[in-house]
Amino acid sequence: MTAARSPLAPDAPPRPGLRERKKIKTREAIRTATYALVEQQGYDSTTIEQIAERAEVSPSTVFRYFPTKEDIVVTDEYDEPLLAELAARPADEPWADSVRYVIRKTIQLAVAEQPDVTVLRSRLMVEVPAVRSRMAESLSETGRLLTEAIAGRTGLDPDGLEARVHAMSLMGGLLEVTTYWAEHGHRDDYADLADRAVDVIMHGPPAATS
């Protein structure tokens, strides 16, 4: 998911210092190199050494920013602005509406900013078991952060079962949305699929039609 500040963020944060800007630039160079190589020769044939050479960094630098090759594909810069936007939604707004708004806005931003990368990442989730497994782990980490936002809005204990189950239901739903989108050739509107998933999570599955 770019080095520039996401418009998801409700307030403009302080401009990153030089050190942080260099880190962001390096992360983006590694990601860009990886996506280009994967498109050219496939995921399994792409090595860390090739990525490092194309990004003009050392292999050790790649590993310093991304512990595994899968991390390059599954990580992005959207978690913090997403959670900040969620926390900034009106306190009297129904929780389901807040969740739907923020998820839709995040997906639309990703598709608008990096359409080819968004499609590629979803395709790799379906085609490469290691990527799908690491994506599930990454979403689990995001889910732990989401429990804090849920607790802030609902008064639930962030370590309690209810907040954790709800957060991980949302994360698991998004994982399935992305998988479904890729399995069906990216024909459907990604954000609309996410809306449907939120409805199922919040209200249960719709009645079957004959």
Give an overview in words.
- The chain is an all-alpha fold and 210 residues long.
- Helix content is 71%, strand content 0%.
- It has helices at residues 18-41, 48-55, 59-65, 69-74, 79-88, 95-113, 115-127, 129-154, 161-183, 190-203.
- α6 (95-113) runs antiparallel to α10 and α8 packs across α9.
What's a concise summary of this model?
With 210 residues, the protein is mostly helical.
Structural class: mainly alpha
Radius of gyration: 18 Å
Strand content: under 5%
Number of helices: 10
- Poorly predicted segments: 1-7
List the helices and strands and how they pair.
Layout: H1 18-41, H2 48-55, H3 59-65, H4 69-74, H5 79-88, H6 95-113, H7 115-127, H8 129-154, H9 161-183, H10 190-203
Helix pairs in contact: 1-2, 2-3, 5-8, 6-7, 6-10, 7-8, 7-9, 8-9, 9-10
Which terms summarize this structure?
single chain; about 210 residues; mainly alpha; about 70% helix; about 0% strand; disordered N terminus
